[in-house]
Amino acid sequence: TQLLEQSPQFLSIQEGENLTVYCNSSSVFSSLQWYRQEPGEGPVLLVTVVTGGEVKKLKRLTFQFGDARKDSSLHITAAQPGDTGLYLCAGANNNAGNMLTFGGGTRLMVKP
Amino acid sequence: KAGVTQTPRYLIKTRGQQVTLSCSPISGHRSVSWYQQTPGQGLQFLFEYFSETQRNKGNFPGRFSGRQFSNSRSEMNVSTLELGDSALYLCASSLPVASTDTQYFGPGTRLTVL
């Protein structure tokens, strides 16, 4: 069974601070996806990383896939209150259809 | 285009009852996956349907079942409800061509078992 461990579970920071969320596994994934979920809604895809060592940027968000495709990180620069939400990483494998293995999530609160 | 819709949005049942949840995927999407989200276990994969066939199944008891219709709409059923089945049930749809295809999640059905 593949597992994804996400840390930290909770993060409360002030507006303008930087933060990093980590997603680690002992298993290799074909791709790693990051989602954000807000209360009362389903997760919304932020990015998919596929290649080991890949770095993707989405405005103030930087996503990195580990060289061995077992881990990933999400870095937010100058966090804003609008970044508040539940961040989820999810791993996928080409031989498992659309099945996603999710990390436990990081609940982020950015205070103004 | 319209997103993934799930009905009902909220449901209250008692132990021992059964429940059916519905998911309408984005038009043109043929894959529908179901997930259970709880505070303790997070998001866990239930099953995936593609072209009316179950393609993958997670580690859930046989009380959890699903099906997909020819129009790609999907239903999941939980029989003999237990208190621990209280959760947010999410469905996600995608085309799919590859595992990297974007999955679009619906808002979920919040099930409370009393």
Descriptive account of the structure:
The complex is a heterodimer of chains A (about 110) and B (about 110). Chain A has about 110 residues and is mostly beta strands. Chain A has no helices and eleven strands. Chain A is globular and about 45 Å long. Chain A starts with a strand and ends with a strand. The mean pLDDT of chain A is about 95. By secondary structure, chain B is mainly β. Classes of the chains: A mainly beta (about 110), B mainly beta (about 110). The interface of A and B includes residues 42, 44, 88 and 98 of A.
Brief descriptors of the model:
heterodimer; A: 112 residues; mainly beta; six-stranded mixed beta sheet; B: 114 residues; seven-stranded mixed beta sheet
SSE diagram, text form:
The complex is a heterodimer of chains A (112) and B (114).
Chain A: E1 5-7, E2 10-14, E3 19-24, E4 31-37, E5 44-49, E6 55-58, E7 61-65, E8 71-76, E9 85-92, E10 100-102, E11 106-111
Parallel strand pairs in A: 2-11
Antiparallel strand pairs in A: 1-3, 3-8, 4-5, 4-9, 6-7, 7-8, 9-10, 9-11
Chain B: E1 5-7, E2 10-13, E3 19-24, E4 31-38, E5 42-50, E6 53-57, E7 64-68, E8 74-78, E9 87-94, E10 104-105, E11 109-113
Parallel strand pairs in B: 2-11
Antiparallel strand pairs in B: 1-3, 3-8, 4-5, 4-9, 5-6, 7-8, 9-10, 9-11
